[in-house]
Amino acid sequence: MSYSIAEAARRSGLSIDTLRYYERIQLLEPPDRDPAGRRAYSDTDLVWLEFLTKLRTTGMPIRRMREYASLRRLGTASAGRRKAILQEQRVAVLERIAELRSCLDVLEYKIDNYEKIECAMADVLDSEPQGVSA
């Protein structure tokens, strides 16, 4: 299947400018062109864009993504180095997850503490004498 740049942008969640940028910095191979000379992205291009998006989400720097893309063009001969890049990124992601878990623990503690304060305040309000009726 073939997709226009607008459709590829919509399907990938990336902007048209980002697609052009990725092409310019060689993260993305120049897509085929339709008879009118417009970019025509393939399903394979979209799968690659999805992978690139995942790499960006992990915090992988563009420089490293470019290295990976360059190695990808070399085929299976570069599989070892590509695997090493992904393993290094996995370590960084696991470290970030641990950091976020630690932050989450602090948030959970603080939320629990505020819930206890709110319950204590509600108990105090419930135990106060109500206005005297005449």
Characterize the largest beta sheet: strand count, sense, and whether it forms a barrel. 3 strands, antiparallel
**What is the CATH T-level topology of the domain at 2-93?**
Multidrug-efflux Transporter Regulator, Chain: A, Domain 2
In whole angstroms, the N-to-C terminal distance is 84 Å
Number of helices: 5
The overall average pLDDT, rounded, is 95
GO molecular function: DNA binding; DNA-binding transcription factor activity
InterPro entries: DNA-bd_dom_put_sf, MerR-type_HTH_dom, MerR_fam
Keywords: DNA-binding
Domain HTH merR-type: 1-71
Structure description:
This protein is mainly α and 134 residues long. The chain has a domain at 2-93: Multidrug-efflux Transporter Regulator, Chain: A, Domain 2 (Orthogonal Bundle). Helices cover 69% and strands 6% of the residues. The protein has five helices and three strands. A three-stranded antiparallel β-sheet has the order 1-3-2. Helix 4 packs antiparallel against helix 5 (79-127). The longest helix is centred in the C-terminal third of the chain and has 49 residues, at 79-127. It is elongated. The protein starts with a strand and ends in a 7-residue tail after the last helix. The mean pLDDT is 95.
Keywords:
single chain, 134 residues, mainly alpha, Multidrug-efflux Transporter Regulator, Chain: A, Domain 2, 5 helices, 69% helix
